[in-house]
Amino acid sequence: MASMELASFPILSTILLSTIVALLVIMLIPEDRPKLVKQVSLGFAALGVVLSLLVYVSYDVDKGGLQFVERFLWVQSIGIYWFTAVDGINAPMLILTAVVLFTGVLTMWELETRVKEFFALMYLLVAGVYGVFMSMDLFWIFVWYDVSLFPMYPLIAIWGGTRKEYGAMKLTLYLLAGSALILPGILYVWAVGGGHTFDLFELQRMGLPAHVQRIAFIMLYLGFGILAGVWPFHTWSPVGHVAAPTAVSMIHAGVLMKLGAYGILRVGMTLCPEGLGYWADLMALLATIGIVYGAFVGLAQTDLKYVIGYSSVSHMGIVGLGLATMTVDGINGAVFQMFSHGVMTALFFSAVGYIYDRTHTKMIPELGGLSNTMPVASAFFIIAAFCGVGVPCMSSFWAELLVFISAVKTYPVRGVLAVISLVVSALFMLRVVQKTFYGPRNERWEHIPDVPLALATPRIILVGILVFFGLFPRLILDVIQSAVVPFVSSL
Amino acid sequence: MMWLFKDPVLAAACTGTWLPFLAMLVILIFTRRNQRLSAGISIASIVTSLICAIYLFTKLFHAGVPVQYEVAWAMTPDLYVPFGYLLDPHSLLMLLIVATIACLVQIYSVGYMAGDPGFSRYYAFQSLFAWAMLTMVIAPGMLQLYIFWELVGLASYLLIGYYYEKYSASQAGKKAFVVTRLGDIGFFLGLIFLMLGYGDLGILNINQAAAGHQIPGPLVTISALLIFCGVIGKSAQFPLLTWLPDAMEGPTPVSALLHSATMVAAGVYMMSRIFPFFAASPDAMAVALAIGTVTMLLASTMAMATYDLKQVWAYSTVSQLGFMVMGLGAGGYFAGVFHLTTHAGFKALLFLCSGMFIHEFHTNDMRVIGQSGGRNLKVPMISMTIGALALSGLFPFSGFFSKEAIMGVLAQHTNKVWLFAGLLGALMTAYYSFRLIFFVALPRKLATVPAEDHGHGHGADHGDEHHGNAYWAMAWPVMFLASVTCVLGFFQAPLEQFLTGGHAAAAAHGAGQEGAGHGMGHYVLLAGAIGCALAGLAWAWVEFGRKRAPQEGFLKKFPLAEILFARRWYLDDFYRKALDTLVYGGLTSLFTRNDRRVIDGAIDGICKLTVGTGRMTSFMQSGMLQYNLLVMVAGIGLVLLFFFI
Amino acid sequence: MNSLSTYLILAAMLFCLGLLGVLQRRNLIGMLIAIELMLGGASINFMAFNRFLAPEPAVGQIITLFVMGIAAAEAAIGLSIILALFRQMRSINVERAQRLSG
Amino acid sequence: MMKWVLFSPELYYVVMAAVFFFMSLERQAEPRKLYKWAVILSGVGVLATVLGARLQGTLFFDAYRIDLFSQVFKILIAIGTFWVMLVCSELKGVDERRHAEFYFLMTICTLAMMMLVSAVELLTIYITLELSSYSLFLLVPMRKHDGEYAETGIKYFMIGATASAMMLFGLSYLYGVTHTTYVAEVVKALPRVFNQPAAVLGLVLALAGFLFKQALFPFHIWAPDVYQGSTNQVAAYIATGSKMAAAAMVIRFIGFGNADSGYFVQLLMVLSVLSMTFGNLVAIIQKDIKRLLAYSSIAHAGYMLIGILTMTEQGYASAIYYALAYLIMNFACFMVIIKVADDGHNLQIKELAGLHKRSPLLAMTLMLGLFGLAGIPPTVGFTGKFLVFAAALKKGYLILVIIGMVNATLSLYYYLIVIKAAYLLKPVREYLPVRVDGVTRSLSIALVVLMICVGIFPDRFMQLTEAAAAALLM
Question: How many domains does chain D have?
């Protein structure tokens, strides 16, 4: 059967290598062939989609656990392993990455300036993302994590928009400051664990002493949390997103922010269950503040991308809350939310990107009545907004359902607060939609054409994913559970 | 797919519910350009649904036990969300009603919306609405019900805000969504508590469990109250009733659809759906009763003060919903449901009629319509009168029977206040509905008519060119509904048998009430009710109907009251103010400032501080050779100190 | 009194004087001389230690010889650099040379 | 006799020095020829050192120790010299008539540092140290028509001479309290006599001399001026070759004292933290790239010290690996600077504007080099930091590591400013195009490959460094 053959074939490394190969190929293409560059990167992105789908489909849910394992010694003296594997938690993440990359490439199809460098850097970024998601060795997780961060600087600073240099510098420094907490955390765990293996699961089996777990967990939580937009450390996200070009915002908000949450789950919570128990209260508190806070601040924004930035803060808060509950449903919901928020935000940014490319403004007061001239383009944003509001039969609804149920169970007050904030989020999403797309015809935008099919395709794909998993949540939920259930029982 | 055909009932249920969804997808993706085709697809799908509904109704009419199908929609160790169909008398009846109304409205819309630029979009939303509503009606579990309840809210948001160029329309849509969302939060929390407390949300299960007192009382009360918040939101009960009148911004057929049988009725339907559960908590019932009463009275007063055709019916809808909630709250399961049924009929009728007027005269002002010869439109005129009669609960129209039923229930209640409130409500209802009728039917040539023209922007561009078929496309549904309104009342007995037969618990409850209702007291009540209605009618006649009638209500004599009623008891202003001060002015600006100044400021401050420190430190590296040497020697000195101390 | 300590004190004084000179003389030649003083102090130390409490006799003297040689070389290099600088700035005052800073 | 084989690499460089000496006697100067000779000879020198890698033994009455440790560092020094020679093709900074002397002094300095790496006796250390310093003293002022940089030479000389004098004074005390001049025995004896002030004074002063070479705070003061004031090539040489020697010396000296005395370790910790923080803070505000790199080198000395002060074999190994990494990254940056400013002037950051257009290859090399210095994976710089911090955490110095990482983030800021200049800024005026000859192209590609591969496949190199560290502790 398929998975048997696949199990022997190092498909994960292939996915990872394909991006690096893409990087090299793109760098070898001469400067004056931008079209070719785009085609090549689209091709490799499609390859990534196919491969990750293959992995996802042939992942054996009943068997569960780690599959497609590749593990061999990399550095002998301090015990670094090349250890990639897939379980229910990162399988959806791989698809998410592939899809967002694919749609991102399509979204940037009209890029003119320094095309080659752009796509090269984007592939570097994505290589890092893939690496983090599929690695099970602390060293590699960290390496790929940083690899996925530093290309953000040139990507934003060169191709960005409003206050790009400030935004780029702020984002890069802020996130790498986060990794400045992660590395000591990882090394600390490693050193306490005897200093001869970076293998995540071996360290987990060792079971570290409680006080170590507390210190290590808070470092890992804060470190990864910065990237996950945990409340007081979220201010990079709106600034960075506003500055970044469309595809970068898509990948960054859609995938990169998930790296943070994923890191908390995969590294922090796996290695330091007791530390988690010790800090869970704080996590829940920060997450709840983030949810409410993000929604309220979103109300006041006048820049479309700022609005999305703060909505991400709010939604990532939901992820954090789910993780903090330490229950099966909570973590299911958190992972599910990572996925659907990724798709949703990608949709948001690509829709805004199109509008911005055409109207050259993303200030809500200047826009208005766009639905008259570009109904389809607006429809994409509106659909994303509904998903953000948590309308049922959109994938994010299920995630929020799961998270809220377990949150109310574990932290009643905070859970109820979070649920109530749904009204505010609805208010601000609909407010943006109304101010931007409704209202009388705006002759300023009369001349603007609606989205051509080629550019509509990526958005259509994203919408399709949202609705599909909204209608058939089990297709993803069962996979996630297959990893979460044993995980929670191990806590 | 074979299993579908093995079980025709299931097949019918699936087709009936999912066909509109498919229709929506097809329209949105493929046939947006082609308006006629879109309309055709949508109508075909809804007609099919109607047929399925009828089929199910007839097939399961005598099947005593409810039929239930389930598949696991989402499943985790702690949470099980089934998707399926629960076909018991109540849901079947509602299914039938919804399908019928939706079908009629869509046919009617062919005429009403003809030539509108967004024709296809309109029908896509209609199908979406139909799908959500139908699936909600026959949901077997509260979670599924909640999910599609939300979708109904979404669809109504889209439909109300259909004329998105109009600020008021989009505003109204937003308001409807957010306000109902407010209620839904309570609903959602109630469900969560119930699930955490009891662990199952299957409608039948919780009904039996609550009736059998297997759920702890406090939990029942709390969750029932919270769930009732959902009813308050959806069915526009006090204090969340203000969104409904605004929702008249949508096209009239939409109002007919939303405010007669479907969206707003969903609240009452949900309440009656888990009636035994509510019944298990007297406190919750009392709250429901009180809120229903307040709502009914407030809405009636508001209805007296407006001159907008649709507004009047909107307020009447609110008050009738309040009336239903009263019925349910007083323990009259059948009474509430029956009034829901009849109300669906005549309210849709009323809206569609006024739609015809509006479509004809491009205005909502009843006085203008009257003077421009509204009465010449025979079909709507007559049907609207019928509707009004039914609304005010006069024999032999359907409204009469259902109102009687509710009155009967109220009469049973120990506290007679509710009964009198009900009677007062009946009085006012008759008054304002006939005030309207007389305005339209027997206009006086008034010197000054404030010609406030709510004419829809779309109305102008398509006038009478396809007047003919458009008119009849609208007339047929109207006439059908009118006839239904005339006869429906006489089916009370079989309906009661059918419904309460299904609900063992409710039967005992309801039948007890009804049974006691007959006899001497019943006739007094009957007389009282009809008396009130007639009194209201007469009053309206005196003020508006008869020759040389001033045609200005008694309210003119109480300007304060009129303003109060016209301003909807300042509820809107209250919300507006609360929103501005609390949300926008308060938390939002506070958080935003905090975000800019405190949090972000701290970050930037740290960066500036670092750079500044660098600049300061760099003075250590002065150009003067010997100072540098001094630094070095001093360093060594410090190191020595470090060792010696 | 122990005569080792006298030598040590003498050497220390030489060294400190040299250091003081380096830090305080503004004249490059003077600074060079001061450095030579510091080296001298070090040499005296070596000699003294060797004379009083070394296991095998020769080491200290040898080191001192080397130091003297090196000091000579150092002086040569220093003077040449100072000369070059003098050609540039027509002065051998340190305060003239403080353009690089920060 | 057989023993001289051990000395062969050094002997080779003596011969090489002689060759350049004779060339310097010629009347007319031929820069191209000299350049060719320099490249060839230093290349062969690398070969010689590599061939001598496995040698072991002691010379000159055990004053001179040859083991894997010393040989590894000799290889590093030789490679550094070779690379610097390679980029001397446009030696505009130095008067043409002096090129021969330039190469001569360069070779002498290399030779001295190689001997320094092997020296295990106080006098030998002192002499070799002075030899290398003097040749540098002469190399630094060699800059042609050096208007504003004239003072550099004298500053360097004065500070250097003072520091060496202090060191000598300190050594004298060490000799006095331990009665021996063999470093091994000195360090063994130290813990016993550590209560005597003389011992402490001696140790501190001696350390001052060593750390001066490594430009560790507070003995760093010469570095910025010298980097800025000397010819680009010389600066590159100081930043790469002589850094290696200094590191080796410090490792050697501390490596003998494997008995970790708390005070001493604390002192080193304080020094490393100060030097990291100071270097990074001041580097933030620099405009001149070489000066910036000088401050960053101060910071890096601090990182390296973290590895050393653990006083474990792993720590020394990590320090050696870090030195290797630093050599590669730092030289990459300097090569770019030299090539961009090939008329020998001092490069300002803003002059890099639009480099990605003028020469994409150099721009990429620079970016990788700077990211490496900032410790961003997958470059070799990251792996170096990783190993150093790992060694520190093995001993439980959590706070130290956190401070180190914070500093790394801090440093990223100014590296990013340079990268921004290279990739983002529009040139304010038309800069002359960058000439990239074959040598440079191949060299920079080689450097890029090294930076990536040594970073991602560290296993080999780590085995080597661990072996070296083991040899050190033998």
Answer: 1
